[in-house]
Amino acid sequence: MIGHKHIPSREGGIEVVVEELSTRMVKLGHSVTCFNRKGRHVSGGKIEKLKEYKGVKIKEVFTIERKGLAAMTSSLFATLSASFSNYEVIHIHAEGPAFFSFIPHLLHKKVVVTIHGLDWDRAKWSGFAKWYIKQGEKNAVKYADEIIVLSQGVREYFLKEYGRETKFIPNGVTKPEIKEADEIKKWGLEKDNYVLYLGRIVPEKGEHYLVEAWKKIESDKKLVIAGGISDTAGYGKELKELAARDDRIVFTGFVQGRVLEELYSNAYIYCLPSDLEGMPLSLLEAMSYGNCCLV
Fold first, then answer.
1. pLDDT digits (tens, 9 = 90+) for 45-84
2. pLDDT tens, 117-167?
3. Which residues, including other chains, have CB under 8 Å from residue 52's CB and lie 6 or more apart?
4. With helix as H, strand as E and coil as C, how does 279-290 read?
5. What is the DSSP string of 73-89?
6. Residues of each domain in the chain carrying CATH 3.40.50.2000
7. pLDDT for the residue 278
8. Per-residue pLDDT, 208
9. How would DSSP label each residue in the chain?
10. What is the pTM of this model?
11. What is the pLDDT of residue 45?
12. Does domain 13-168 have CATH number 3.40.50.150?
């Protein structure tokens, strides 16, 4: 598995998908290796160095920890390592990492690419980065033995744009256990007294639309924005400045475990204001908790 940041992690939907897919494949008797990036967690903490997780082998690869370079360098070195190893299938996640799909193809390896969204169209990318990701999409079309997409819209896009058939395999979620509000009370949150957004703090997720709209609403409920800031610190700062002087807006930072479960379990509404999505795992999770969802 190549293209994620780290497992185990909830830094993004790709990380959750890779973890769930890998651990379940191990249970079915397959040998699976995940190539983790070096570096820090989106929360700012250090990443625990593991050699194995729930039967999945973990390999850490060299990474240049700078915006725009972390994903590229880790994907390159992961692909090189995997291509020159004795793996039957190399599964690449996302369009950027798929740029290097020609390497295992040239070495006669089976290549699977999962498209988690049309990443080149994300607001945070421009110039070389946008070209690189778009070329990753084209390389996937040219070199992958199979392409997996998460939505019918993306399936139709690949068919129309490239004449390439893909496999539609949507994301799944595990049925959760509802948790009573306990740890989230530190933010003044209780059952049904807040609207929730949970996800990465990046421009294409549209959190600024949500904050701007919320400031125009007269309500005693709170707006909770839960998520970590990785390579878009400038946007995160702008978002907090936009929300300033409205004490109904709560920024929790990165959340996981019990806190995340409580946030989903007790939200009045889950809101996803994104400009661009593939099949958002956070929305599926919110639905699995029985939330009313606004997108």
1. 667 789 999 999 999 999 888 777 888 999 999 999 999 9
2. 888 877 667 788 899 999 999 999 999 999 999 999 999 999 999 999 999
3. 58
4. CCHHHHHHHHCC
5. HHHHHHHHHHHTTT-SE
6. 13-168, 183-294
7. 75
8. 95
9. -BS-S-SS--SSHHHHHHHHHHHHHHHTT---EEEEEPSB-TTSPBPPP-SEETTEEEEEE----STTTHHHHHHHHHHHHHHTTT-SEEEEESTTGGGGGHHHHHTT-EEEEEE-S-GGG-TT--HHHHHHHHHHHHHHHHH-SEEEESSHHHHHHHHHHH----EE-----PPPPP--SSGGGGGT--TTSEEEEES---GGGTHHHHHHHHTT---SSEEEEE---SS-HHHHHHHHHHHTT-TTEEEEES--HHHHHHHHHH-SEEE---S--SS-HHHHHHHHTT--EE-
10. 0.83
11. 63
12. no
pLDDT, tens only, 220-244: 999 999 998 766 678 889 999 999 9
Q: Are 242 and 209 in contact (CB under 8 A)?
A: no
The band of 245, judged by pLDDT with boundaries at 50, 70 and 90, is confident
Give me the amino acid identity at 127.
G
Question: Which bin fits 29, alpha (ψ -120 to 50), beta or left (φ > 0)?
Answer: left
pLDDT over 90, % of the chain: 76
In this structure, which CATH number among 3.40.30.10, 3.90.470.20, 3.40.50.2000, 3.90.226.10 belongs to the domain 183-294?
Answer: 3.40.50.2000
Peptide bond preceding 8 in cis form (omega within 30 of 0) = yes
